[in-house]
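RECORD TYPE: protein structure
NAME: DUF4230 domain-containing protein
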Amino acid sequence: MDFLTTVLLLLVGAGGGIGLASFLQKRSGITNVQRDSVLLLERIEKVFKVVMAEGYFSEIYNYQDQKKILYLLNDPKKAMVIAKSKVLVGFDFAKVRFRVPVTGERKLVIESFPEPEVLSIDTDYRFYDIQAGILNHFSGADYTQILEEAKQAMNERAMQSDLPKIANNQIQYMMYQLASSMDWQLQLPEAEQRKLEAIKAQAEELTSKSATRPAEE
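PREDICTED:
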């Protein structure tokens, strides 16, 4: 038996063994799945961000991409994503500008206060009705783009809701209470100060009603 014949027999035997092993594995229902992950810590930053409101949203996001075959026939691919998210809205106190008057007054003057922002979005994505085209298939980059666009849509929806308004009212009243507890006076920018006075008036009215209700009964 020459060398070439020996090599061919070895290759045929190896191929047959692999085929037999694959057949037996499918018949037995055993699947060999290997998973591995590597955690990389890029950086740690010190932040002073305060969450003042959270909201729960559900969204149906439809993705469709049209591709021409030979510039004549449409070859669309589409997918539907259902996203359920918990959105946290609050403030980055690193953006606050304030000063204390040099006269020695126990007053904190807030010169500039940031707008409320989305601090985090925790989302559960589910893909449904994925339909690839004849040549227009889905790639890993497509799925990444779909998730990014769905997350951006959720961010915009959260900022258009009542969450920013609720967060604003919460932070102003919290700062007022904190300053009062330390016998300090809080002064916000003019527009914010008017909002704070309205919030304080509503809180005092509710407190007054709660205190007088038992006596009235």
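COMMENT: The helical segments are 3-28, 140-159, 163-181, 190-216.
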